[in-house]
Amino acid sequence: MPCKRCKTSPVITLQSGNQPCKNCFIKYFEKKVGKTIREHKLVEKNDKVAIAVSGGKDSLTILSILHNLSLRKKDFEVFAILIDEGISGYRDKTRIDAEEFCKKNDIKLNVFSYKDELGAPLDEIIKKTGISGCTVCGIMRRSMLNIAARKLGATKLATGHNLDDEAQSVLMNYMRNNMEVTARLGPITGIKRDKQFIRRIKPLYFMPEKEVTAYSFLKELLGKYSECPYADQSYRNDVRDLLNGFEQKHPGTKYAIIASFMEILPTLKEKYAQESGKINHCPKCEEPTSGIICKRCQLVAQIKEKLAKS
Amino acid sequence: MKVYLERTNESKEIKASNVSELLKKLSLNPATVLVIKNNTLVTETEKLNEKDEIKIISVVSGG
Ligand code: SF4
Ligand SMILES: [Zn+2]
Ligand SMILES: [Zn+2]
Question: Which of the four CATH numbers 3.40.50.720, 3.10.20.30, 3.20.20.70, 3.20.20.140 does domain B2-58 have?
């Protein structure tokens, strides 16, 4: 079936059943992302938006869209932050993709590395301390992004999370009874308005992963496939397979999960905002924490101690 | 026709008259891949013939 509008060959089948051609798909995609940004007030006048980039398709897609939007609107700014974990054969490659894209488009890219922060690249940390890569990233990437965004004067921090990522997270938290973590999801996050915590925005929130990949392919943002050698996300992979299996049999499942989640989200946020009480700030790094010394500083100390002994 | 799977870096010879049939033969879920025919992105209903060069890209990112 050719594209309804221009009678040319279609590139993708959307959930509605429509099969747009390349140009119509790109228009549809950008319009829908724009709508998410407007309706959820992800970007407002005078915002300074830091965009977390890895060099992968999701991050280059959101970087490209927000950059073009800022050129058109002229009432907000964007710049990029890349966390280089130090994973040879993986991040060194995607880092080059990010650097090239930023250079070509004249976007300021700020790089922060585990090597500077922890004293060694992730490859070496794993070898010498035995701590798993995903455990280190789970704590470090998030906090390094927040600290970097804050120091660079950002008012928002954008990530490339898509509909599939979010539907997986919602389902995973259900199945593991982690509702407090669920309360921190959504297209714009931060349970409490805390000056130290830069609000996170996810402009690709309603875009399925397949559509993001198609967009990045058509806009020539898609690099060669690469995979982190330490990837240990078997639970998430199981949930992804389950959701994709369901989606094939029952189209619309992912959207339905997100739509029902959006309905209960305000209630969840309210509940946990009341329960979490006063938020402390870590005396070492000023990051928000529920304890005294934050998890990040505890992990940094542990890694440095083990590296010194090795 | 010649089919290249980017994620696993394999090439295969497979007979199929359209994309849907090809994905079935490879046991791939259409939600998880893009099919590129002669450098052009195509949908599941696209017809295929022997001379086409097919590349299959995974939509899942790694890490
Ligand atoms: S797969 Fe794990 S170790 Fe690799 S970058 Fe992602 S979180 Fe870090
Ligand atoms: Zn069209
Ligand atoms: Zn701290």
Answer: 3.10.20.30
